[in-house]
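We give the entry.
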Amino acid sequence: MKPIFTGFAAIILIGLGSAFILPELGWSSAERQSSENVRLD
């Protein structure tokens, strides 16, 4: 049972970490999918 909870904790940490770190590095979906012809408000 302990490995399952460890896996769940790892998934949560990776998900939260990527949600906060990737936009800071310029890897947000809005920045990656837009071009200079698309205006983001």
